UniProtKB/TrEMBL annotation:
PROSITE patterns: ABC_TM1. The chain crosses the membrane at residues 12-41, 61-91, 111-131, 137-155, 185-206, 253-275. This is Phosphate transport system permease protein PstA. InterPro entries: MetI-like, MetI-like_sf, Phosphate_PstA.
Length: 284
């Protein structure tokens, strides 16, 4: 009886500590967000969205950062989703269940926790220098693809695993081939889970700055990119640049940039969640 009481008391203390830590975290986050909104809202004018960066705070804008981030995120999704989904389909549906496959799966899972700066160094060595792509949008997008690819692969694997086996067996019983079953039954059924991985990958890619700095993205740029070979900047880099300037007005501009970054992130996630829910309803 004493042991049971001790365990109950220990569990209650543990849950109480977790609750307090979570509550403190929420309060700190709320204070930070309120501070950012108060400082950034006055700078969210039309000029802020259409102007280029400037050494004068009242003339500075964030247009190159927005355009650069859209380029990077769009190309990253184009590269990462087909490669990640194809890899997940192969590992779950075609690869033999042996030690080599298990080794690959374990290492893919481990790669999702690798610091992003390591991928930046890899992108610098492979894409910028070896392949000669230079400090371009394409180099940045390929590097970000390396960053988010493990997330897409792992989430797609879990979604494919969750597809009931009876759906596959029913398809085979009707005479469908393995590829037809995967294309018509497995992948459409797994799409909600796959979209969850896409949401996570887009969220990570949109907020990353270290890999882009390593591959040579600019923190200050005075023109818009006109193709995948152009020099570029991104929203996190623009915010980083403003935070390093001495005037207080530039830090307020950085707060406005954070608001824009959060708005783009929430909008992108909302669109992806909407697509996920749409496919989930069509499956049901």
């Amino acid at each position: 009886m004493n042991n049971i009481k001790y365990r109950k008391m220990k569990n209650s203390i543990f849950h109480g500590v977790i609750f307090c830590v979570t509550l403190i975290g929420i309060i700190v986050l709320a204070v930070l967000l309120i501070d950012i909104v108060i400082r950034g809202i006055p700078y969210l004018t039309g000029k802020f969205f259409t102007n280029f960066p400037s050494r004068f705070p009242n003339k500075a804008g964030i247009l190159p950062g927005i355009v650069g981030s859209v380029w990077i995120i769009g190309l990253t999704v184009v590269f990462a989703v087909p490669i990640g989904l194809g890899t997940a389909v192969y590992l779950e549906e075609y690869a033999k269940n042996n030690w080599i496959t298990k080794f690959i799966k374990i290492n893919v899972s481990n790669l999702s926790g690798t610091p992003s700066i390591v991928y930046g160094l890899l992108g610098l060595a492979v894409f910028v220098r070896t392949l000669g792509l230079g400090k371009s949008i394409l180099s940045g997008a390929l590097t970000m693809t390396l960053v988010v690819l493990p997330i897409v692969i792992v989430s797609s694997q879990e979604a494919i695993k969750a597809v009931p086996q009876y759906l596959r067996h029913g398809s085979y019983a009707l005479g469908a081939t393995k590829w037809q079953t995967i294309r018509k039954i497995v992948v459409p059924t797994a799409l909600p889970g796959i979209f969850t991985g896409v949401i996570l990958s887009v969220s990570r890619a949109l907020g990353e700055s270290a890999p882009l700095l390593i591959v040579g993205a600019a923190t200050y740029i005075s023109k818009l990119p006109d193709g995948v070979s152009s020099v570029f900047t991104a929203l996190p880099l623009q915010i980083y640049y403003w935070m390093g300037l001495p005037k207080q007005e530039f830090r307020d501009l950085a707060a406005a940039g954070i608001i824009v970054l959060l708005a783009i992130l929430l909008t992108t996630n909302a669109l992806t969640i909407g697509l996920r829910n749409k496919f989930q309803k069509s499956i049901e």
